[in-house]
Amino acid sequence: MPDDMTARRAFIYSSRFGDYSYGTEHPFKVLRYRLAYDLIQELGLLEGDTNLFVESPSASEEALSSFHSRDYLETLREFSRGDGNRANFFYGLGDVENPVFHGLYDWASLVCGGTMEAVRQVVDGGCRAAFNMAGGWHHAHAARASGFSYLNDAVVAIQGAVRRGLRVAYVDIDAHHGDGVQKAFYDSDRVLTISLHETGDDFFPQTGYPQEMGRGKGYGYAVNVPFCAHSDDLIFEQAFKRVVRPLLSAFHPDLLVTQMGVDGLRTDPLARLEFTTGALEFAARSFLDTGIPWVALGGGGYDEVNVARGWTLVWGVMNGMEVPEHFPPGFAATLAEIGADSLLLRDLPRLAHPDDFSRAQAFLERNLAILERRLFPLHGLSPGAS
């Protein structure tokens, strides 16, 4: 692999990411992609010889059908040709969660193609890392839309890498459990899936418990660390150091794919975690420090300014460029136009209330005990390894 300081980083993007809409009342706003891109560009984070800007291609039907059923793809394509007044609840299409809109299939194919291109840039293109912030649709299943996700870009791209003989680690830090990716590789020992998320006790998708460890050859290769509500950066960092780092070291993957959802930030409207942008930067630096070829995907995030801030900081870590504390003038003016009043690009440090922290710590320790007792020995690890 090229030296970290000289190797290229690929930024996968298309202005077409913002050409579609889930609807004005839906929490998933495609405006977040343009805001993130505008902030990254104004800060000069796409400049330099080591930064490669790549227009996102569309995924072919052949590539999509390597995971998704052809009947589901045909229904998705047919529905996206109309005005959106269609539904097929067997496939999870047309409800409030996963609305149908004109051009849906083309847009989903474009996003999925971006993740496939990110993997290609890292595996074949000599890039140290690649970022497709539109990717990370981790809830989609082979024949069903779920959780705002229509096509599972991570699964399609990872399957392609596995067919080439690569071992892949997938780490998901979104507030929601990466259930679709876990299910796709639940029987495989070629893909290690790790998800750090808010507990599914009363939170979508109601999965992601430590006891979910894989099946058959895949037993021990599905890893889940749930957090209770109000977990903060200290809880996140403990989980990361005690689970993610040792397992990545033991698994020795050829490729690292991460889902960098920002809905764990304390001001996200859909989750109840209390992370700050410091947790995102900590995770990004940790992924970079592994030295493993790295593909980062976007994922969740339902406050557009949080998304722009979070993914800008992730990209800054990926390409080793400094990110200032304040928004640049042009972006600040854009925020004023949309009624946002944020000034700082990074969150100020913040800890949970002591009582909340105590509950979160106890919850974490119970879950880590299960993993360290039942899963760590399968990878030759002892409790406390980091």
UniProtKB/TrEMBL annotation:
Positions of the Histone deacetylase domain: 26-317
Biological-process GO terms, alphabetical: acetoin catabolic process; epigenetic regulation of gene expression
Keyword Glycosyltransferase: no
Keywords: Acetoin catabolism
Pathway annotation from the record: Ketone degradation; acetoin degradation
Keyword Membrane in annotation: no
SUPFAM superfamilies, alphabetized: Arginase/deacetylase
Gene3D superfamilies recorded: Histone deacetylase domain
GO molecular function, one term: histone deacetylase activity
Regions crossing the membrane: none
Pfam family, one: Hist_deacetyl
InterPro entries linked to this entry: AcuC, HDACs, His_deacetylse_dom, His_deacetylse_dom_sf, Ureohydrolase_dom_sf
CDD domains: HDAC_AcuC_like (cd09994)
Similarity annotation: Belongs to the histone deacetylase family.
This protein's name: Acetoin utilization protein AcuC
